[in-house]
Design a protein that fits this description.
The protein is of the alpha/beta class and 277 residues long. The longest helix has 16 residues, at 233-248. The chain is built from 13 helices and seven strands. Helix content is 37%, strand content 17%. Strands 3-2-1-4-5-7-6 form a seven-stranded mixed sheet, sandwiched between helices. The chain has one domain: Vaccinia Virus protein VP39 (Rossmann fold, 3-Layer(aba) Sandwich), CATH 3.40.50.150.
């Protein structure tokens, strides 16, 4: 469960904009699992509304999906009702740092845009991240694959045009993300071998909706990016005023384009590929 976002509420709108960016890379990484991909049993840790599970389900044998938020799980179960009934996916209400599975049962684990929701602090070296990675090492078979979908510090600074409107919240969000080099070191400490790092640059996480310069005016749009959960009511009022002022002056599209320029080189997400030693 997120330590700062009310996903019971935002789950109602989450899928209106959110896209499973990087799934082709995830599938490529999972293909290095210790069994053929179509025989692989996968863990989706922090599955949310099931976007990533749905995207890879046709490639693997079975998925066990875990999340703590009942709203997100309810959406995922409706979305994947047919494979759920067919036994190809199961959903579990559980913590990702205390997984309800035996040792060495999975061929692969994926965790997509979840780690920053942990109740963690950079000052202490992100101990909750470490506990989660230890759990992944426990439930993975030897040579099992781990795919971590997260964001680099540069992506968080320059990959989301609207973060320039909410700088305080964006800074707070960035502090919740462990830098990639620290994640790699933590993976090594927890029994993993880092095997690659990728940054898909072809698609934003909110899909086409991301390019709507008036998007932040809509709660449905804002519910697709948890950074807005860190924005106070007063700050939101100032954002709305600023967008309307930019639009009134005919400057809104130029503002978005200017603050989106570096995304095309950086992308918005980074994918770390590792295997259990």
């Amino acid at each position: 469960m997120s330590s700062y976002e009310n996903y019971t509420q935002t789950s109602k709108n989450y899928d209106k904009t959110r896209e499973p960016v990087g799934t082709e890379i995830t599938v490529g990484c999972l293909a290095h699992a210790p069994v053929p991909l179509d025989q692989a049993v996968m863990l989706d840790a922090g599955c949310g509304t099931g976007n990533y599970a749905r995207a890879i389900l046709d490639y693997v044998d079975r998925i066990e999906a875990v999340d703590m938020n009942p709203g997100m799980l309810a959406v995922a179960e409706r979305k994947l009702a047919r494979p759920l009934a067919g036994g190809r996916i199961s959903f579990h209400s559980a913590r990702i740092d205390a997984l309800p599975f035996e040792d060495e049962v999975f061929d692969g684990v994926m965790i997509n845009q979840v780690l920053h929701h942990l109740p963690d602090t950079a000052a202490k070296g992100f101990p909750a991240h470490r506990q989660v990675f230890h759990e992944f090492a426990r439930v993975l078979k030897p040579d099992g694959v781990l795919v971590v979908n997260t964001c680099s510090q540069e992506q968080l600074r320059h990959g989301y045009w609207h973060y320039s409107l909410i700088r305080e919240a964006a800074d707070a969000l960035r502090n919740r993300y462990a830098p990639l080099d620290e994640l790699v070191e933590t993976l090594d400490d927890c029994g993993f071998e880092h095997r690659g790092r990728f940054a898909p640059v072809d698609a934003p996480v909110q899909g086409r909706a991301y390019f709507d310069p008036r998007g932040p005016l809509s709660v449905e749009w804002r519910d697709g990016d948890s950074a807005w959960a860190l924005v106070t009511e007063d700050q939101l009022e100032r954002v709305i005023y600023r967008i309307r002022k930019l639009e009134q002056n005919g400057e809104l599209e130029d503002y978005m384009a200017r603050n989106d320029a570096r995304r095309q080189d950086l992308g918005q997400v980074s994918i770390l590929f590792a295997s259990r030693r």
